[in-house]
Amino acid sequence: MTMAGSGSFRLVWKKTERSVEIMTIQVFSTVTDVSNAAASMVADQAKTAIARHGSFHLVLSGGTTPRHTLERLAEPPYATGIPWNKVHIFWGDERWVPPDDSRSNQHMARTALLDHVAVPAGQIFPIPYRQSPEEAAEGYESTLRRLFGKQPPRFDLLFLGLGTDGHVASLFPGTDAVMEQRRWVCHTQTQGPAADRITLTFPVINRARTIIFLATGEEKAPKVREILAAAGVPPRLPAQLVHPVNGEIYWLLDQAAASLLTEKI
Fold it and tell me: Pathway, according to UniProt (predicted)?
């Protein structure tokens, strides 16, 4: 399967007798095209979820391409075409910074989208800023357990970015959080400013009905190829541990991020 230009293909894996994973990879000419496609998928998934159970549970991601997607959703036809009063908003991860900090994923989502559409305030569930990142993680897990009960939530749509080191959400290579199986939310650390992070863990991420990876730019190409070429190989990167149970994964890539995908993948 050559991915030199725009295109789409679907791969289906039957993991067990009771579990099926479907992966669709789509390559677009530009970052704008990726963002437009992601916004259209949000609208479609919202319609499906609301018809199924009366609400749409959406998990947001930080990053430049996700921001473009949120800005697109704040414009016609999505700003008025999506029934935002039935949308519930969550976050996959957050930096341990105040919510008005420019590095905050919540701040980004509010300025790009939530300040412009009619999601009820009581249906927006940001990761809290508490006295310590550990308390913030405990607080968010408590919120999820209050809302969803004993079993991890089954979000309708969950966005993930892809780090150049293969991390997703704030699950970084070599950290304990990657292997966490009990907690739904935990504190972890990375290098540089705002090193403390709060993140959903894989037991929650992999319960999502649909996961959308957004990856753009040439710097993402090596990891995109490594991840998508690694079927059947023991995972080395956090992104290789994303396997929704009876769910779908969509990879939305621009041509730069897909530039190393070849017929051998």
Answer: Carbohydrate degradation; pentose phosphate pathway; D-ribulose 5-phosphate from D-glucose 6-phosphate (oxidative stage): step 2/3
Write the CB contacts of 65 (distance below 8 Å, at least 6 apart in sequence): 31, 34, 35, 38, 161, 214, 215, 216
pLDDT given at position 175: 95
Task: Please give the CATH topology (third level) of the domain spanning 7-254.
Answer: Rossmann fold (3.40.50)
Annotated domain spans of the chain? 7-254
β-strand pairing of 19-28 with 7-16: antiparallel
Structure tokens at 107: 């701040």
Residue 126: CA count within 13 A, CB half-sphere? 20
Q: For residues 239-254, give the mean pLDDT.
A: 93
Q: What is the pLDDT of residue 229?
A: 83
> Using CA of residue 29, residue 32, residue 36, residue 38, what is the dihedral sign?
positive
Mean model confidence pLDDT for the chain? 91
52 band by pLDDT with thresholds 50, 70 and 90:
very high
| Contacts (Cβ under 8 Å, ≥6 apart) of 56 | 45, 46, 49, 50, 86, 87, 88, 156, 157
Report percent pLDDT > 90 for the chain.
83
Which pair of tokens denotes residue 42? 């949000």
Is residue 169 within 8 Å of residue 239, measured between CB atoms?
no
Which residue, among 237, 235, 215, 236, has the nearest Cα to 224 in the 3D structure?
Answer: 215
